[in-house]
Design a protein that fits this description.
365 residues, alpha+beta, 5-stranded antiparallel beta sheet, 4-stranded mixed beta sheet, 12 helices
């Protein structure tokens, strides 16, 4: 390489180290391997060749390494062996058994070295960038991530920035209350990351129940520490979420700790959910009490737990005036209560015919 090219080459290595965090020594070793493979392909792939790159001058030199043998040996492999007398033409103070490095006249190869070097560096940088991206993504699997909207497609998909990485969230993974514009910031949940293909696949969502769980963990230290446990989450994304929480410590204000002073903790969560309602339900090992809590704020008359093979059914009676409240808009309250308690809820109006009330409940759902 010419002096100017050598200087540019060394400057490029230094810039890569600063901007992309790529170790120069590691890159030099990659360059040596690449140049060595290229030389052997173009010239003699049988010789024992090594490459030196001077980190001060940028000089690239090729050497043939040969074992020194006795002059009297008639048959030998010239690609890896050299008689003593011939070896002394390159270096005087040597002996049989030494290894001599003979610099090769690789002018023709050097003329192509710049292009070869460029190709090797580009390939190596791409590999390191992919490795860095994969490392970042593997660390956020199953976690909340902060996102910024870069572009909105006509089909509703969002192109996002996550700490310098480009991600996409599909419209179906947004809730009905998610209405974002370019530049908006919000949180998402990464369900899974697949790094086995040519390009990483990131399953990013705002509809998963675990988004709410992770928001609660982030905003409420008692949940993060394990003092308060999330037993289950039932969610109708964009509409309402019920969260069953529990603590073994009788001195802990279970609901109050989650709400926070002046509602600061729960409000931070509601803001991230764009107004989706979140109800905190006290978990109880007694299914009757748990169902009662889950159907709040409706006041119940009676609860009977029935087991039909593997199915669990909660037969619940409420005052007629409380039936609509217990069912909720479009049946959401009953649906989420059942999902939270892992059973089926049958609501009946107290004092009225069951069949008629069952029909009324189904119509409202």
């Amino acid at each position: 390489m010419k002096s100017k090219d050598k200087a540019t080459f060394l400057d490029a290595l230094e810039e890569l180290e600063k901007e992309k965090g790529i170790d120069r020594l590691e890159l030099i070793e990659r360059l040596k391997s690449g140049l060595l493979a290229a030389y052997k392909k173009d010239f003699n792939d049988q010789e024992n060749i090594s490459v030196d790159i001077d980190m001060v001058t940028g000089d690239v030199k090729m050497f043939a390494e040969k074992n020194i043998i006795e002059d009297m040996v008639k048959f030998y492999d010239p690609t890896i062996e050299i008689p003593l007398s011939k070896a002394k033409e390159y270096k005087k103070r040597i002996k049989v058994g030494d290894v001599i490095r003979i610099e090769l006249n690789a002018d023709e190869f050097r003329r192509n070295a710049i292009q070869r070097t460029k190709s090797i560096i580009v390939q190596y940088v791409r590999e390191k960038e992919k490795e860095a991206i994969n490392n970042k993504l593997s660390q956020v699997e199953g976690k909340l991530v902060n996102l910024t909207v870069k572009r909105i497609e006509p089909n509703g998909n969002l192109y996002l920035d996550m700490n310098g990485l480009d991600l996409t969230i599909l419209k179906k993974e947004l809730t009905e209350v998610d209405n974002f514009e370019v530049g908006d910031r919000f949180v998402g949940y990464i369900r899974s990351v697949n790094l086995t293909g040519k390009f990483p696949k990131v399953d990013l969502t705002r509809t998963d129940d675990r988004l709410v769980s992770k928001l609660l963990e982030r905003e409420i230290p008692e949940i993060q520490s394990g003092l308060i446990e999330i037993k289950n989450v039932a969610r109708e994304a964009g509409v309402k979420t019920k969260v069953a929480i529990y603590t073994e410590d009788p001195n802990v204000d279970l609901i109050g700790s989650c709400i926070g002073r002046d509602g600061v903790r729960i409000n931070a969560i509601l803001n991230e959910l764009k107004g989706e309602k979140v109800e905190l339900i006290e978990w109880n090992p007694d299914l009757r009490l748990f169902v009662k809590n889950a159907l709040s704020p409706a006041e119940l008359v009676s609860i009977e737990i029935v087991r039909n093979n593997e199915e669990i059914i909660a037969k619940v009676e409420v005052e007629p005036s409380q039936l609509t409240l217990a069912i909720g808009k479009k049946g959401v309250n009953t649906k989420l209560a059942g999902k939270l308690c892992k059973l089926r809820v049958n609501l009946e109006a107290y004092g009225e015919e069951n069949d008629g009330e069952e029909e009324k409940r189904e119509e409202q759902e």
